[in-house]
Amino acid sequence: MSITVKDVAKKAGVATSTVSRVINDHPSISEETKKKVRKVMTELGYVPNVTARNLGKQIASAIGIILPPLDSKERLGNPFYLETIEAVNEEASIYHMSVAVASANNFETLLENVKRMHLQKQVDGFILTYSDNHDPVIAYLADNKIPFTLIGQPYQKESEIIFVDNDNQLLGKQATDYLIQRGHKNILFVTNTTRENLYFERYFGYQKALMIANLTTHAAVKFEAPEDYILFENTLEATKATALVVIDDLFAMRIMQLVQMYGKKIPDDISLISFNNSIFSTLVHPYITSLDVDVSRLGKMATQKLMEQINQQLTDGIKVIVPHQLIQRETVLDLTKLN
Q1: Is a pLDDT exceeding 90 seen at residue 59?
Q2: Fold classified for 5-48
Q3: What is the CA radius of gyration of the chain?
Q4: DSSP alpha helices (H): ranges in the chain?
Q5: Which of 67-81, 97-111, 240-254, 275-289 has the lowest mean pLDDT?
Q6: What is the pTM of this model?
Q7: Maximum Cα–Cα distance for the chain, whole Å?
Q8: How many CB atoms within 10 Å of residue 20?
Q9: Does residue 27 register a pLDDT over 90?
Q10: Contacts of residue 131, Cβ cutoff 8 Å, sequence gap at least 6
Q11: Considering only CA atoms, which of 214, 209, 216, 219 is closest in space to residue 176?
């Protein structure tokens, strides 16, 4: 025998209309009541008739997750995006929403995919998982007033866009401070992306920490061409760097292999700190000291803010900051204990 709305209402001690409003996440129902009714729905195994509800409301009951152009091995293998999809999917299920993914290897194709998903009403809104200064997708979403949440910081229209992010400038500063406090004075910032906003913010934080400590700041070491991997050894020698701040854990693994190929040991010769605290930070020894950006919370908060837009509970731009945490491991040598 199939479970009905009446069965849920009876067990939850509410009216059938209340159950219907909970299913539609109506703002008139309190969060306490929503939690109670959803718990009963789970206990009884009740599944709403999404198709019928969608026809009546002209909605898709789906969220679109937009990944950046997957144009490199680093991006294809970056666990940040998989962890984000998992977090969004988990949070979306609470609202009885499914998840669709838009991906491509270039911006032009990605934009066409997003347009098609929107015009064919496959999704009710989007979560953008990156912030790129040459991105046509965010302009399309904003210009057409399509509900979307950005994970990251926008390059423009910050007061109009709803975005969820870490304080990346503070992340960069705290990573660098951690090295400075352990006696490092010649510190480089290393990156394989210069288009995403998190690069600028983390690099600004690196510069800020060194300037406050009256230490020399260096131009970011950018890996954008094959020869950059060859020139890096010369850069290390010229700067006499003892420590590196690397843009993320996945690229940090590549840098560790490169440094070891030069005959240097980590952390004995070169210390290293990175960001994200992904699975890569503990895949090889030494384990990477990293700042955890709480990807799960980023994804869940982005989903919540998108649902508020879809349900017309939120229209103005808003910034949500997710806290981070330093995870101390094995890639930073404390020079103050050697003297």
Answers
A1: no
A2: 434 Repressor (Amino-terminal Domain) (1.10.260)
A3: 23
A4: 5-12, 16-23, 31-44, 50-57, 73-77, 79-94, 107-119, 136-143, 168-181, 197-212, 226-239, 249-261, 295-310
A5: 67-81
A6: 0.80
A7: 76
A8: 16
A9: no
A10: 138, 150, 152, 153, 154, 155, 163, 196, 197, 198
A11: 209
Q: What single letter denotes the amino acid at residue 323? A: P
The answer, yes or no, to whether residue 52 has pLDDT greater than 60, is: no
Domain pair 62-166+295-322 / 168-293+326-337, same fold: yes
Helix, strand, coil % in the chain, rounded to nearest 5: 45, 15, 40
Output the pLDDT for position 157.
85
Cα 319 from chain centre: 14
Return the CATH number of 168-293+326-337, one of 1.10.510.10, 3.40.50.2300, 3.60.70.12, 3.90.1150.10.
Answer: 3.40.50.2300
What residue type is assigned to position 316 of the chain? D
Residue with more model confidence, 298 or 73:
298
Q: Tell the CATH topology of 62-166+295-322.
A: Rossmann fold (3.40.50)
- Among 230, 229, 274, 233, smallest CA distance to 250 is for 274
197-212 and 168-181 helices, crossing angle to 10° = 40
127: nearest Cα among 97, 170, 106, 105: 97
